[in-house]
Amino acid sequence: MTTTASTPTLAVQPITGALGAEVRGIDLATLDDAAFAEINLLLLEHLVLFFPDQQLTPDEHRAFAIRFGEPEIHPFIPKLDDDHQEIVVLDSDKGAKADVWHTDVTFSATPPKCSILKMVTSPPFGGDTMWTNQYLAYEALSAPMRDLVAGLTAVHTGWPFGHPELATEHPAVREHPETGRRCLFVNRQFTSHFPQLRRSESDALLGYLCTFSEQPQFTVRYRWSEGTIGIWDNRCTQHHAVNDYDDRRVIHRVTILGDAPTGPAPRWEHYEATRGGAAEMLAMLGGGEMTP
Question: 230 and 252 in contact (C-beta within 8 Å)?
Fold first, then answer.
């Protein structure tokens, strides 16, 4: 519920030249509409925001998160409790270590808009998270490469969750629904292939784009403290939880539902739909089915 507290002056400290900012001087539990609007603009500018020393209760965490939109009820990740189905618990003692670059749930037809994370238990050292700016990754490609990728789609699957049948096709270059900027929209964890290409070509291009987008000049790395709230725009970033710790690490996260990605129209039909593509596929698979 919106309070009538006066809008504070925010202290915003960018972390790197690529993305990320730390924000102080505000209590996320008592935001008025003007303060929330300012936070939303900061998120569009910096892509990932960090708010130290918040210590939100579960009710406050949920109330703040749903100001961004409708929360996801994740089908596979454990929940905080029956009264907080929107809050998922990622506990390293139970195997929750997302140590591969990814954009969340891109196998969905409508991948998440953003996530609002609370650091509950942080190891004494290690356990940082990194993000990469997919606007910059796309813009830094050579003009011929940008032209090629903008003409492709990419297939994303849920096989890392044990559900390869969950799959969808998105533009390989996404146009952000609020800023209008183009960004690269593929990732190591969920992207399977570019259906317009031969599989060998697709594997080579996907590997190149993932490696390219993970370069240090596109990234930020953040050292957590307990009680910090982190928010990232899932539409134009990837992230990676660094697995360099042994002590317990626990986070609570609310994810906000997004929309269907849009981008440039594909310029070629699926390769397997062509005569040569079908013949090659049959030869490769021996009559079997293709797997991601």
Answer: no
Whether residue 20 is found in the same domain as residue 58: yes
287 domain residue, yes or no: no
**Domain harbouring 29, CATH code:** 3.60.130.10
Neighbouring C-beta atoms of residue 271, cutoff 10 Å: 20
- Which amino acid is it at 260? A
> Is 4 inside a domain boundary?
no
Q: Provide the CA 96 distance to its chain's centre, in angstroms.
A: 16
| Confidence (pTM) | 0.89
Q: Which residues are catalytic?
A: 102, 104, 239, 253
* Cα 208 from Cα 218, distance rounded (Å): 15
For 92, other C-beta atoms within 10 Å of its C-beta total 19
Domain count, the chain: 2
pLDDT in tens, 271-292: 987 645 445 544 444 443 333 3
My answer on whether 40 and 172 are in the same domain is no
**Closest Cα to residue 284, out of 202, 178, 167?**
202
Distance of CA 148 to the CA centre of its chain: 23
Same domain, 88 and 137: no
Distance of CA 62 to the CA centre of its chain: 19
CB atoms within 10 A of CB 158: 20
Boundaries of domain holding 141: 133-213+268-277
Per-residue pLDDT tens over the stretch 172-210: 999 999 999 999 999 999 999 999 999 999 999 999 999
Sign of CA dihedral 278, 281, 287, 292: negative
- The CA–CA distances, whole Å, from 30 to 8, 61, 121, 127, 280 equal 11, 11, 24, 29, 61
